[in-house]
Amino acid sequence: MVRNTRVIHKEDASYPALLREIPDAPARLYYKGTWTEELFTDCLAVVGSRHMTTYGRRAAEQIVGEVASRGVTIVSGFMYGIDATAHKAAVDAGGKTIAVMPCGIERVHPEYQKDLYDKIIETGGLIVSEWEGDSMPLLWTYPRRNRIVAGLSKATLVVEAGLESGSLITAEFARKFGRKVFAVPGQITSEVSKGTTKLLKEGATLVGSPDDILEYYGKKRASGQSSGRASGKNDLEQKILDALQKEPFEVDLLARTLGMSASTLGTTLSLLELQGIIKQEGGKYYTNS
Fold first, then answer.
1. Which tens digit of pLDDT belongs to each residue from 124-135?
2. Which CATH number does the domain 235-287 belong to among 3.30.200.20, 1.10.10.10, 3.40.50.1820, 3.90.190.20?
3. What pTM was estimated for this model as a whole?
């Protein structure tokens, strides 16, 4: 595992080809981790709100986990919220991820994400910055970082964004660079869906499942290949899963929907939870697929 800081110059043969194409490409990049050209073959930028909802987090985990497991490198900006969720989902899926920092390469920002920072390096990913030393991030360094996030990537995926979100800056860079922009549709009543709605109106490609992205990268699952949905379940278990695939439910409402008592339902929910097929969060049950 490489923890020492190294530097790569724009003139070097292993400098990322897609990044070299953009206007004002960084003259040099400082990095920690193991730099391989394969890491940059298929990159997807994943950005979104720092104030993500449960829906946004689950969407990011599901989409990024599947995409990363298929060999697409996830690139993001290491901030809390969707950025950190994307990095973690990639690592948890056994994939690779690149964190582009808005500060000097020697600084971990935010500092409380040090464990995630270390995990990215330990699993063959990279920490990258345009700046040496331990300089603090400033207002102007974030959009400079965003251009690198978009510049490294064949496409950018936006998962939840307000109208003033920096994620829209990354999406705009992607468009200027001639790259694909994907967006996850959100709840129309949510402030953090207004930015993604705007992107969709302007022509971004709607993402309803990981396959929408995998197809673009030529990695779509074969017909009939499972994405992790449970199989071999009895009728009640399948009814529960079918209902939770549509939306999360509190146990009482789920019981009424399925026409049974909450006590009867409770045992089956507990078994499915123990198997890791569903989980409970905030008083509601969700599927893990």
1. 999 999 999 999
2. 1.10.10.10
3. 0.81
The pLDDT tens digits for 5-25 are 999 999 999 999 999 999 999
The span from the CA of 104 to the CA of 102, in Å, is 7
Q: Cα-atom radius of gyration of the chain, to the nearest Å? A: 20
SS3 64: helix
| Closest C-alpha among 75, 235, 83, 226 to residue 152 | 75
Could you tell me the fold of the domain covering 6-216?
Rossmann fold (3.40.50)
Residue 162: half-sphere exposure toward Cβ, Cα within 13 Å: 9
* Other beta carbons less than 10 A from residue 250's beta carbon: 14
> Cα dist. 35→71, 117, 126, 220 in Å?
16, 16, 7, 27
